[in-house]
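Why does this matter for the project? Reviewers at the last site visit asked to see concrete outputs rather than summary tables. In response, this paragraph embeds two records directly. Each consists of the residue sequence and, immediately after it, the corresponding structure tokens. Nothing has been edited or filtered.
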Amino acid sequence: MILYFTADLIFATRIRSTAEALGIPARPARTVERLRELRLEESVNAVIVDLDAGDTAIDLIDAAACAEPPLRSLAFGPHVNIEAFEAAHRAGASQVMPRGRFAEQLPTLLRLLDTPTST
């Protein structure tokens, strides 16, 4: 399963519907607590986070990086928001990319993120 959090309902719908079309389970996780709950309920492979969500996005990335075992996290946002990209890297994001590239590569990214990591 892939968890996602986005500040934009259009992107949330796009992530969910693309994952659904690919047969990949995806659920929203808007808080660190929800991320932890879902990890207890199901096998989670990765987290996708919209950097426009501010501090909540960084908190989710940090929680994913500190989880046991750590979760991969992909952060995306406006290409001009260099500070948010740097904050995501510092929080432990596995991958950070501009929104346009994320949207362009969404099906491929979902397939890659759905693959369990070896521990």
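We now turn to the second protein, recorded in exactly the same manner.
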Amino acid sequence: MKEIKQLLEITKSLKDQYNGKLDFSLDGRLVGDIGEALVSERFGIELHGKNNHTYDGVHVSSGRKVQIKASMKYNFSYPFGKDLEHYIAVHIESDGELEIIYNGPGTLIHDFLKSKNRKPYKKIWYTISKNQLIELDEKVKHSDRIPDLKLLTGKNSK
């Protein structure tokens, strides 16, 4: 997506103009929207739009409901009291490439958070670290992942 790459180049240019004293981070809703767009294309997910609060879309081939979380700073959340069907967490690199942090059933994350007696933020969400998600991702069976179309087509991937 040409526009997303241009936006990332603009924020890098602004950061350079201020010698790194200002970050011009795009974290927030904009980053979430960028992540959803990139993940939907890369994994074949049809997005719902803004009316669905639990799931961002559905995987076209399997029908799995998916929540997508994206960050440029490795900050991730998981909804309070939800055992999501599928959860994909990605880090958006400064060049617009994706680092896949977690791609699997929400049950692994939900059970992990419960086992650790994690305290949620206002009974809305839990925070979960990149390292915790990577450890949980290692436990995901290949058959429980949504296939990465970039890998299937043989294009380089991080």
